[in-house]
């Protein structure tokens, strides 16, 4: 009898725990700045992910050797360098980092292009404060950070040579406006490059299953994302501005997927910052691990795709070509 009660009790606990973890806790509700302020103040995200809040890049050779052999934070610097190559930008003098986080990318670009001026914008005042502190500590003078909404930027038209958006589009409630605003502030001849978590394109032949929809809804809701779009839709939005040319897109699942589980392992190897923070952070960390694993699963089965998109703003005399994105050979994910 006792054994029966114990099994029933354990079953009920497991069921309740699963229900709690399956119920998203940070739905999008104009709360993006507030959530990033909290992540910044807690310090856990910066401790593990370093200055960059985006996935890392693992080359085919590194993947063959095993992703755990690569330094987790170095993978993020490598990602920025690969993204720069993908953009095709040459020697930009004015750079805008849209949704800059703690400004890791802004500082990296400012160090690389010493005679450039780099501006990072975010919705989080705490990130502006931390980004500015780190720039000072590292002696980077050609970078500055501001709280500003990417959907209503205060910059005049045609201001920047390079507009860079790495993993900020996920949070945008209006993706069309996001693309249009970034194109507006781009100088003719300048480059727009976007990295964004995308959902696969849904077509009448390949509709989402009920499980796909449930998985996506959880991934939208847990980290304050209003919704995702497909890589193809980004291509259409970019071409639809009528101002961008040479629009090209790619799916980088294969070379970024390892980041998810790698981020869990770095916590397992060095759990102490979390251990000493107390029950609220323990709970939050368990939720993050569950979400990270669910992200891994969704990208591994290509329900989610790592979108890379770039284009150039046409010069006034040139007529940008209307039509489809030039989808470069997509790199498919390995499960
Ligand atoms: C996942 S972090 C990416 C950080 C950064 N790009 C990096 O490389 O480390 C998302 C960033 O997008 C910013 N963001 C989200 N919505 C925004 C908006 N409407 N305007 C400006 N920034 C926004 C957040 O404040 C946060 O800094």
Could you characterize the architecture of this molecule?
- InterPro entries: Erg6_SMT_methyltransf (IPR050447), Methyltransf_25 (IPR041698), PiNMT-like (IPR025774), SAM-dependent_MTases_sf (IPR029063).
- Belongs to the class I-like SAM-binding methyltransferase superfamily. gTMT family.
- Pathway: Alkaloid biosynthesis.
- One of its GO terms (molecular function) is methyltransferase activity.
- The C terminus is likely disordered.
- The longest helix has 22 residues.
- It is built from 14 helices and eight strands.
- It has a single domain, classed as Vaccinia Virus protein VP39 (Rossmann fold), CATH 3.40.50.150.
- The relative contact order is 0.14.
- Helix 8 links the parallel strand 4 and strand 5.
- The protein is α/β, with parallel strands linked by helices and about 325 residues long.
- It binds S-adenosylmethionine.
- The site of S-adenosylmethionine (SAM) has 24 residues, from helix 2, helix 6 and strand 2.
